[in-house]
Amino acid sequence: MLPAHARLRRREDFTRVLRSGNRAGRSTLVVHATLGGASNDAGPTENSVRAGFVVSKAVGNAVIRHRVARQLRHLVRDRLSQLPPGSTVVVRALPAAADQTSETLGRDLDGAFRRILKARR
């Protein structure tokens, strides 16, 4: 589970990242990220990395969507330290994510993060 300060919840935050962030797609997911930007929150969390998830009905029924979201939350939690402070990430699951293992999702997530970090340089 992601800590509360590391989760995106507001629609405006999702929209900002999806429209202005860098994007890296893989076969099971697409990662949108704004790297090192200032957060709208005040206080000790303003430099924390925040993440949000989009798992649409195209991925599957409610049971499958929640399983995919849990897998992605767990995988992203372990990788937040790879991103610069103040980054915001949105992970969008594609329909192919429904029947994939956590290992496959993790490889796709790592590849997407590498591509986004490489584009920053």
UniProtKB/TrEMBL annotation:
GO terms for molecular function: 3'-tRNA processing endoribonuclease activity; ribonuclease P activity; tRNA binding. It is an enzyme of class 3 (hydrolase). Consists of a catalytic RNA component (M1 or rnpB) and a protein subunit. GO terms for cellular component: ribonuclease P complex. Pfam families: Ribonuclease_P (PF00825). This is Ribonuclease P protein component. It catalyses: Endonucleolytic cleavage of RNA, removing 5'-extranucleotides from tRNA precursor. The gene is rnpA. RNaseP catalyzes the removal of the 5'-leader sequence from pre-tRNA to produce the mature 5'-terminus. It can also cleave other RNA substrates such as 4.5S RNA. The protein component plays an auxiliary but essential role in vivo by binding to the 5'-leader sequence and broadening the substrate specificity of the ribozyme. One of its GO terms (biological process) is tRNA 5'-leader removal. The lineage of its organism: Bacteria, Bacillati, Actinomycetota, Actinomycetes, Cryptosporangiales. Keywords: Endonuclease, Hydrolase, Nuclease, RNA-binding, tRNA processing. Its EC number is 3.1.26.5. Transmembrane segments: none annotated. Belongs to the RnpA family.
